[in-house]
Structure formats: C-alpha cells, structure tokens
Amino acid sequence: MTTVTRAARTIHDIKCWLTDMDGVLVHENQAIKGAAELMKYWRDNDLRFLVLTNNSIYTPRDLRARLLASGLDVPEQNIWTSALATAEFLARQRPGGRAFVIGEAGLTTALHDAGFIMTDQKPDYVVLGETRTYSFEAITKAIRLIEGGARFIATNPDATGPSAEGLLPATGAVAALITRATNREPYVVGKPNPMMFRSALNRIDAHSETTAMIGDRMDTDIIAGMEAGLLTALVHTGITSASDVDTFPFRPDLQFSSVANIHAELVAEGGKGSTKDAKPSKD
User: Fold this and answer.
1) Which of 57, 207, 253, 261 could be cross-linked to 104 through a Cys-Cys bond (beta carbons 3.0 to 4.6 Å apart)?
2) 244 an active-site residue?
3) In this predicted model, what pLDDT tens digit does every residue of 233-253 receive, in sequence order?
4) Pick the CATH number of 14-54+191-268 from 3.40.50.150, 3.40.50.1000, 3.30.530.20, 3.20.140.10
5) Do 36 and 192 contact (CB within 8 A), yes or no?
C-alpha cells in the first residue's frame, strides 16, 4: 500500500491572508507593533487580504475610520464583518427576503444593500446582531415572530463584549435568552462557523490551500480556520496565551509572539519585497 503525505505548508506558500482585528492588529484602539508593516508588505507584494471581525455594529467605512485613528490604513474593501457575511448568506438563501433586525448600522446597512426588506410584518427571518442597547420590546417582538415561524439567525456567538466599565452582554447572551423562550437555536454565521471564512475566501477569490488565517483566539479564529482548510497562525497578543494552547484538543499550524514576527519572517525568508530596511522582531 502506498502512503501519500502532503508537504507541510509554510507562510511562504501563502498567497492570500485573512486576519482577525482585535488582539491581532489593534489592542485598545492602538495598533500592535508590526501590524502596519505587515499590511504594507501585503500591499507591496500584491497579496490579497481581508481583515475579519465578528463585530456587526460597524460598517466597513466605520471600521476603516477606527483603524485609521489607531494608525492602520485599511481600505473598506479589505474589511469583512459578520454582518456582511450574514447578509451575503441570507441573500443566497432568500433573495429579496424580509427580516426583523436587532442590530446597528453595520447589520442594517449590509442587509439593505443585499436587497432585504426590514420589517416586523411577517418576516422570513429574525436577525440578531450586536447593539449598544438591547431593547426588551425588540427582544419580545423577536420571540413572538420566531414563535410565528420566522427563522432565527445570529451574526456571531460571542456572549460578552468589552467596555471601559467591564464586560457587556453580547449577541450570544441575548440569543441564549431568545432560545430559552422559543426553544429555537439560531443559525450563527460568524466565527467560528467556517461559513464566514468561506465567504471571505470568495470575496477575494482565494483558495484555502494557499490562504492563511491569523488570529488570537483558539476557540474562534484557529478552529474555524482549521475547519476551512487554511494555514492557521496564532499570535499571543490577544486572548489565547502560549500556555493556553495545550488545553485545546487541536493546535494551530504556527505560533508567533505577534504579527511583527510574521512580517520579519516573510521579509527575511524569500519575500518578494525589499529587505534592506527589515529588522528581525524580538520575542
């Protein structure tokens, strides 16, 4: 019997890049060292990339402005949110459909642009996303519409989100409330559903074999990237530390202290760009 083994991929085999935002490129509204240089390298070498986020509050234009304020110049077309992935998914499921939406401009704009009618009258879907102020009235309406036959969709499973005062309840927590009241589980489009990664790959015409995912969370970024067939790179500037990795039943393909190390390796080991100004990053 012949055994066929596939050669291990490295970051030098990668032609397209997906990257998480918070904890990878920015932390507390400040760019992480090496993030600007890495994205410049991608642009200079014509490598396609997308910045992914489960946050459905903001439009790509909003997020571009926030990233610019942190010192990172990311074009709108290089930002992919759970709201955009949700709108694309629903537009394929039911073109021109109707939705009752709990969410902010990032979600409502994406659904509107996808041709959806937003209404509380006989909607095809109840779509739950992130919002700064969850309304008891809106949640009650969602429960009644789902009981009446509307399909339940959530943009992401995150149970909490950060704020200056501490944790806030997020989409996953509110979805759990609605599920308890209706006995209906939502279909969740955002990470860790590989659906979001597949839609991102389609967005930049990328193939999983030559695409990498950079993330800071084993339970969302890395597992979803793994299940989508991507090369996975964990950085230790966010949620998952190096000591946490062994607590999971799966591993990333690669681990780096930060994106600065990824940039240094790309430049030092056969990158197409000039290396005259490159300096190895320090762990």
Assistant:
1) 57
2) no
3) 999 999 899 999 999 999 999
4) 3.40.50.1000
5) no
Alpha-carbon gap, residue 164 to 158, rounded angstroms = 18
Closest by CA position to 233, among listed 8, 11, 7: 11
Residue type, 274: S
Tokens of 60: 């790509």
Residue ranges of the domains in the chain? 14-54+191-268, 87-188
What residue type is assigned to position 26 of the chain?
Answer: V
Helix (H, G, I), strand (E, B) or coil at 195: helix
Asked if the domains 14-54+191-268 and 87-188 are classified in one and the same CATH topology, the answer is yes
| pLDDT single digits (tens) 180-228 | 999 999 999 999 999 999 999 999 999 999 999 999 999 999 999 999 9
Query: Could you count the other beta carbons within 10 Å of the beta carbon of residue 47?
Result: 18
Question: Which one of 20, 62, 216, 221 is the catalytic residue?
Answer: 20
b/e map 51-72, b = 16+ CB within 10 Å:
bbbbbbbbbbebbbeebeebeb
CATH topology of domain 87-188: Rossmann fold (3.40.50)
* Residue 244 CB-density burial (10 A; 0-12 exposed, 13-18 middle, 19+ buried): middle
- How far is the C-alpha of 192 from the C-alpha of 156, rounded, in Å? 8
CA 175 vs CA 129, 146, 160, 199, 249: distances in Å: 9, 12, 12, 23, 27
Asked, as a colleague might, if the bond just before 192 is cis with ω within 30 of 0, I would say yes
Residue 22: active-site member:
yes
The active-site residue, picked from 13, 22, 62, 216, is 22
User: Does the pTM exceed 0.90?
Assistant: no
